[in-house]
Predict the 3D structure of the following.
Amino acid sequence: MTTPQRPGTTSRPWLSRAVKQGFGEQAPHPMYTPEFAKDPHAAYIQWRSAHGSLAPVELAPGVPATLVLGHSTALQILNDETHFPADPRAWQPSVPSGCPILPMMEWRPNALRSSGYAHQRYRAANVAAIETVDQHKMRAVLEQMAVPLINEFCTGGGAAPRTMASAELLGQYIYPLVYQMLAFVLGFDADTNEQVGLGMAMMFDAAADAEAGGALMVTALDEHIQRKRAQPGDDITSHLIASSDLSTEELIHQLVTLQGAGSEPLAHLISGTLMLMLTDERFAGDLLGGSLSTRDALDEVLFTNPPLANYCITYPPQPTLIDKVWLPANQPVVISMAASNTDPAIHSDRFDQFGNRAHLAWGAGPHRCPAQHLGYQVATDAIDNLLDALPELQLAVSVEELTWRPGPFHRALESLPVRFPASAPLPLPLSFPE
């Protein structure tokens, strides 16, 4: 999939509008550069040393924000919806429509971007629909989808067994599997899945036209909802329509949230976990022995390299004092889950033990992710199906050669090339009985 080239800074006349409220004359740190994407943890350490638990940053050129680096501060903010609401409407007019990150932050009538009663109403509808998902059936469906994808590359194009074959897992396995699973859970047909997937990828990609991606996605979801009203099924969309009083616009934006949370972040949770399991001796050396599980590896990634590394955005409606810093009114406050999880103030041996799940990768407080159990299951099953089929999988390049996509919010690999002994195609699993 090709995307437009990143526009030059000369095409953005609003770049000079950076505001240094809350931190005096301290220059904000850019979070949109390839340098930040290459080693964000080094940046977090530097910023924590210079500023403490709150650092001035730029999410895009000329878009200031406060990044929360401290674990206790993050929890305080995430649990205080009164002083830190998630509604961006007072901030939004200050940002021009050409801002590349606006589609990821703008107000939508959904649970993610609402507070108070509106948030409770949207969240209740989402939770009720999510709870209808049959996890047993979902596991069987994932295997039916995973095996044909693996068979497309496991033979190495007809190479004899034991000949080394190769694949690029993000493009050939992870992305198609995640989007096929989302289509199953949300009830998308193939055309809707393709259009919504393209739109969501454009919104996450710093080099793409995010505004056009958002418009493409909304149009596809509108058409999808009309089809489901006429022919409902056993899927989240149909249950949202049947069990709530949400308007078409509100339904669209619940699906935007569900699609956004279940697509790019989930794909990069899987890719990041596979990278860890293939390269870190604590996992790679013990995988065959069974002392460490895929769930251990997932939680390690969610602690140290969560795919949605910086998000959970709030907008204090008035100047707010926290950790001896006056945060300006109506300016984004972004939680760094990656930095908060590794905050030295709370880090101890307890946080280094395998099986610990006290990370903030799923958020906390009233906006905590309601579908984390589904995310864990899809990620675990996607990885286990692949490693069961190709147990001698190994990274095809050194870790240092892997590149990370720039952007203030995600922690996402550009690609995940692997090599392995070619094998015969897997037998196709039986269909799940209706």
Notes: Confidence is low (pLDDT under 50) at residues 1-21.
